[in-house]
Design a protein that fits this description.
Strand order of the largest sheet: 3-2-4-1-10-9-11-14
CATH architecture of the largest domain: 4-Layer Sandwich
CATH class of the largest domain: Alpha Beta
Radius of gyration: 25 Å
Bound molecules: fructose -6-phosphate
Number of strands: 24
CATH superfamily of the largest domain: Aminohydrolase, N-terminal nucleophile (Ntn) domain
Strand content: 15-25%
CATH topology of the largest domain: Glutamine Phosphoribosylpyrophosphate, subunit 1, domain 1
Helix content: 25-40%
Number of domains: 3
């Protein structure tokens, strides 16, 4: 959802560093890119398109100076064009601003600025910011004061970085409801939407809170509140390493991250102590409510099956964007579990803020220090490392691992923990045979519709498989509870329609096989995902993706999603799509 970077270096050229950093944020948007550096004037290079395309066209690193700001865009106001690309400037071109967020009252601000004579060039909401800063700077205020005055007028969300020709050597940043971190290197200072962007330069991070401003210059970093008072901030040393944000020889981040899943599960399993501690602190609850979006919502659905079937604790799962209709149903005996990879999803944060005064809140999050981790009462980290591919993979299996551990410690089902210990090896065995899945992908790459079916614990797996397919192959995919097919969707099964049936050994196995037969009777081509020793399944399906027979139904979601991720990944590659950057999507959705 747009990424911003700023840096002040110790006499090194800033533009190549800004380019390198902003490339790490490309997962946040890839509609356009731009860099601005100040000296006797503000130099800007920007255009629509992916970073590499724009760089090849305009030479983004060919800008003077040892400081500057940069932006990758996920368009909200104004279609992707060069003019709508950031950085945006004031009338004189002396002030440049990059912005992530949405300015809700931009129309009235724009009208008023236009009536005062300001000339706008773009269709964006962002452009009001440099013009407002210009308005205040022409009254004699400095950049910092002018940014503060401008932000006082703005309604909406923002993380911004602003520079001025009149104050070279200074970057002013601020945040409200969009992420912004500060990096303190050796005599060099950074601003960024996310830590992986600057890991090559420093891992000393300051997390800014809403309503805080930061002033970067050659002598250091000062954080202030909107009253201009200095705030002492803790510097966190984060353990993520630069290579975690590199492809390391893989063709795409997505396939690298799929292969990192055994490690991600192993690392998350090491959170056992924190989980035990949180379980002991939470105390009595009589209801669980998961709140999440997208893939994190699917992980939450597995949570419902676990809490209800193993503990008998009533559990709701609510899409964060729909939560406001249910907020009143939460009380002090409800544990609201927020699941979010980024910890910055606007819908999820809004739900958390609605309920945190009235209920116990636990956030299960991957990104260290993200907003959700600072606002929830309890926090559990998934230890997946940075996830760069837009489609969530390793963070999903880590979320599931966390949820299984939570349920195991609450219900004292230590057998579940024992089973979780086997998951990394079971995944590794599957990943060693991915060539088979690649062949299946080649066979079905021309399909226009796919169905994914499963019962019980396999139903959310079917939903997540369908979401992965839609996101990165642009093929229509629907996930259904297998028993629900006959209530409507069966009408869509025709000759050759591919149906992925998730059929682990266990209670639901035989019933799901009956559904597979119903599909076959209508000409559907079934790709079965089940035990490699399941002769019954094998005889019913066109293609079988076989997994370790020891994986039982309850624990199956963690491993059974892997072949579905691989299927989508290889179809995407076969179709010539970049799975890391699917169209219209961004990894971190900071708008509602
Ligand atoms: C799908 C995907 C999205 C996210 C959703 C929530 O592959 O990545 O559906 O799961 O946008 O994001 P987080 O988990 O960061 O709150």
């Amino acid at each position: 959802m747009c990424g911003i970077v700023g840096c002040i270096l110790n006499n090194d050229k800033a533009a190549p560093v800004l380019l390198e950093c902003v490339k790490k944020l490309e997962y946040r948007g890839y509609d356009s890119v731009g860099i601005a550096t100040p000296d006797s004037e503000i130099h800007i290079k920007k255009d629509k398109g992916m970073i590499d395309e724009v760089d090849a066209k305009v030479g983004l690193s060919d800008l003077p100076g040892d400081m500057g700001i940069a932006h990758v865009r996920w368009a909200t106001h104004g279609i992707p064009t060069k003019t709508n690309s950031h950085p945006h400037t004031d009338c004189s071109g002396d002030i440049a601003v990059v912005h992530n967020g949405i300015i809700e009252n931009y129309k009235e601000l724009k009208d008023s600025l236009q009536s005062e004579g300001h000339i706008f060039k773009s269709d964006t909401d962002t452009e009001v910011i440099p013009h407002l800063i210009e308005k205040y700077m022409t009254t004699g205020l400095d950049l910092e004061e002018s940014v503060k005055e401008a932000l006082n007028l703005i309604h909406g969300s923002y993380a911004i970085a602003a520079i001025s020709r009149n104050e070279p050597g200074k970057i002013v940043g601020a945040r409200k409801e969009s992420p912004l971190i500060v990096g303190k290197g050796e005599n060099e200072y950074f601003l960024a939407s996310d830590a992986p962007a600057i890991l090559n330069h420093t891992n000393n991070i300051i997390y800014l809170e809403d309503g805080e401003m930061v002033i970067l210059n050659k002598s250091g970093v000062t954080v202030k509140n909107m009253l201009g008072e200095i705030i002492e901030k803790e510097v966190h040393v984060i353990t993520w390493t630069p290579d975690m944000a590199e492809k390391s020889g893989y063709d795409h981040f997505m396939i690298k991250e799929i292969h990192e899943q055994p490690e991600a599960v192993k690392n998350t399993l090491m959170e056992a102590e924190d989980i035990e501690e949180i379980v002991s602190q939470i105390g009595d609850v009589d209801k669980i409510c998961f709140v999440a979006c997208g893939t994190s919502y699917h992980a939450s659905l597995i949570g419902k099956y676990l809490f209800e079937s193993l503990i008998g604790l009533p559990t709701d799962v609510i899409l964060a964007s729909e939560f406001k209709y249910s907020a009143k149903a939460m009380d002090e005996k409800t544990l609201v579990i927020i699941i979010s990879q980024s910890g910055e999803t606007a819908d999820t944060l809004k739900a958390l803020r609605m309920v945190k005064e009235q209920s116990k809140t636990l956030a299960i999050v991957n990104v260290l220090g993200s907003t959700a981790t600072r606002e929830a009462e309890y926090v559990l980290y998934t230890r997946a490392g940075p996830e760069i591919g837009v489609a969530a993979t390793k963070t999903y299996v880590s979320q599931l691992t966390c949820i299984y551990m939570l349920v195991a410690y609450i219900s004292k089902r230590m057998d579940l923990i024992d089973e979780l210990q086997n998951v990394p090896q079971q995944m590794t065995s599957l990943l060693e045979n991915e060539g088979h899945i690649k062949k299946i992908a080649q066979k079905y790459k021309y399909a226009s519709d796919f169905f994914f079916i499963g019962r019980g614990f396999s139903y959310p797996t079917a939903l997540e498989g369908a979401l992965k397919l839609k996101e990165i192959t642009y093929i229509h995919g629907e996930g259904y509870a297998a028993g629900e097919l006959k209530h409507g969707p069966l009408a869509l099964i025709d000759d050759g329609v591919p149906v992925v049936a998730v059929v682990p050994p266990g209670e639901t196995h035989d019933k799901t096989l009956s559904n597979v037969e119903e599909v076959r009777a209508r000409g559907g081509h079934v790709i079965g995902v089940g035990s490699q020793e399941d002769g019954d399944l094998k005889s019913e399906v066109e293609d079988l993706i076989g997994l370790d027979p020891e994986i039982n139904e309850i624990i199956s979601p963690i491993t059974y999603i892997v072949p579905l991720q691989l299927l989508s990944y290889y179809i995407s590659v076969e179709k010539g799509i970049d799975p890391d950057k699917p169209k219209n999507l961004a990894k971190c959705v900071t708008v509602e």
